[in-house]
Amino acid sequence: MKIKILTLFKEMYDGFLDTSIIKRARALGLVDIELVDIRDFSDNKYRHVDDTPYGGGAGMLMQVGPIARALDSVKTEKSYTVMMSPKAKPYDQAKARELAHKEEIIIICGHYEGIDHRVSSFVDEHISIGDYILTGGELASMVVADSIIRLRKEVISPDSLDIESYDDDLLEYPQYTKPYDYQGMKVPDILLSGDHAKIRRYRRKMAIYETLKYRKDLLKKHHFTDEDKQLLEEILEDIKNGRL
What we know:
- By secondary structure, the protein is of the alpha/beta class.
- The protein has 2 domains: 2-158, Alpha/beta knot (3-Layer(aba) Sandwich); 165-240, tRNA(m1g37)methyltransferase, domain 2 (Trp Operon Repressor, Chain A).
- It contains 9 helices and 10 strands.
- The chain has helices spanning 14-17, 20-27, 64-74, 93-99, 138-149, 158-162, 196-214, 216-219, 226-240; strands at 2-7, 32-37, 50-51, 61-62, 79-84, 104-108, 114-115, 125-127, 181-182, 185-186.
- A hairpin with a 2-residue loop joins strand 9 (181-182) and strand 10.
- Helix 7 crosses helix 9.
- The protein is elongated, with a radius of gyration of 23 Å.
- It starts with a strand and ends with a helix.
């Protein structure tokens, strides 16, 4: 996979590129990340890429020309171009899985007060990581890139991906490691039972419970199996009787 990021602040990616899973994926040749400095495509000697908005208003807008030229310099027939923007519905795991199947993605990062609207005509999709304001698209682009890269084959073990939050519209079940007893807080005994069928059922139940407790909205999208319905009934009964 190839990811090309158009930005004004390449230095912001230093730690991102050379740490943890992203570093390993790059070292193994599973992903290639190219940073493109939009200022290199300015048409003036001061390398300015912004100007005041027509019609007045606060702040400065990134100009269409430098971004368009930067995009032209890296775009290929395989490119899928996205722009970090508040216009889109919030990013989710389903979108990450969709983008993970692309062979080449270009991400445009805005800054200052925003981007000339005409840049939208050059992109395939707008992406937002949430309904809040950042100083620029760089941090958001790292979130998107990380979420995509970790889904690519061989970057992370398939077993790890199978039990993650948001897959199947459920949060991940609680997990524990040693010690068994920490200040009176003990690991559930069923996890030490060795009974894999009971452990699987318990984890499924707790995944539903965690989602009900913290992200009830996700349950509206979740497809409940017959077992899930039974587990939900047990959960509601446990809550009613103070067991959860």
